[in-house]
Amino acid sequence: MNTPSHSIINLWILGQGQSPALQTAVLIGSILPDAPMFLFYFVEKVIYRTPEMQIWREHYYIEGWQNFFDVFNSLPFILVGFAVMWWRQSSVGMAFFASMALHALGDLPLHHDDGHRHFFPFSNWRFESPVSYWDPNHHGRIAAPIEMLIAIIGCVVLFPTYQSWVGRGLILTLGASYGSYIIYALFVWA
Fold it and tell me: Structure pTM?
């Protein structure tokens, strides 16, 4: 799933009606599993000037990068973090790790051959879903519009639940970032 979709869905499921501190934790937890991917793309595209197709067809699969991605998507690590926050009775910390877990679980059914090792470092197993959120060879032409529709509905549902201009601005920003990503993807990858 695209990162803004994770954020919208996680706020919808975990953050709706919660305090700003919990909503912030949910938002950060929804983004953090993809943060290594942003760094990877920046390094490959901006620093190394790697061609787009080489980034995603070759460099994405380099073992060091894969390990880096998988640390942030490891359900065992996330569960340890959640357990520590539960022990410390930190509802903000639990919301953060619950959001990371929801992100990881949301990715499971939507990655065909590019998914994470969600049980890293204990296993190298990757679930290969028959569905991909982006790959047209694995129902991406169906999954992508469904994801987009869910994200739009999520923004519409969430917007009125936020009373502050900061909260509403956040929802608008998430919706706009999703739209910007779609436009970027159409120009770069289409």
Answer: 0.91
